[in-house]
Design goal:
By secondary structure, the protein is mainly alpha-helical. The chain has one domain. The chain has 4 helices and 5 strands, in the order E-H-E-E-E-H-H-H-E. It has a 3-stranded antiparallel beta sheet with strand order 2-3-4. It has a two-stranded antiparallel ribbon with strand order 1-5. Strand 3 and strand 4 form a beta hairpin. The protein is globular and about 50 Å long. The N and C termini lie close together (about 10 Å).
Length: about 150
């Protein structure tokens, strides 16, 4: 008698949300690695005085890296369900859209730049916003449910 195991297949959107989550985790970790993050010794907890640059381009701080790590954990957790994956992608995209607008209106040299962000971050945030919202809303095919696996 063959044993029957149930394998739950993830939707394409769940897989994409998990990938986005892993990328955020990777970026959060890389932000704490000297060399990958240049001017590492100038990193502050938060604020525009942090001179650390992820990949020599994107302004980061300890808070910024923690936010990336938290976004990654949220992405992996929410990717466990189809509705959670959609909510993560669309909701996260909206958060990044707001962050992009914020980065456009603040003075990057002021205390209002607590995240901190620079011009490269602003463009990245716009790209993330558009990409995440698109991945959350575009049709990606039919959802497949549990299947019997007779190994």
């Amino acid at each position: 008698m063959a044993s029957m195991e149930t394998e739950v297949r993830r939707t394409p959107r769940q897989l994409l949300a998990a990938i986005v989550g892993v990328v955020f985790l990777l970026v959060g970790v890389l932000g704490f690695i000297p060399g990958v993050t240049t001017h590492y010794d100038t990193m502050t907890f938060a604020g525009h005085h942090s001179g650390a640059l992820l990949l020599g381009v994107f302004n980061v701080s300890i808070l910024h890296n923690i936010v990336h790590l938290a976004f990654g954990v949220a992405g992996l957790a929410m990717a466990r369900t189809a509705s959670g994956a959609r909510a993560f992608l669309v909701g996260g995209g909206v958060v990044y859209l707001v962050l992009w607008l914020y980065g456009l209106v603040i003075d990057h040299g002021s205390a209002a730049n607590f995240v901190p962000v620079n011009t490269a971050d602003n463009w990245l945030h716009l790209g993330l916003a558009v990409g995440m919202i698109a991945l959350g809303l575009i049709p990606l095919g039919a959802t497949r449910g549990p299947v019997a696996d007779s190994r």
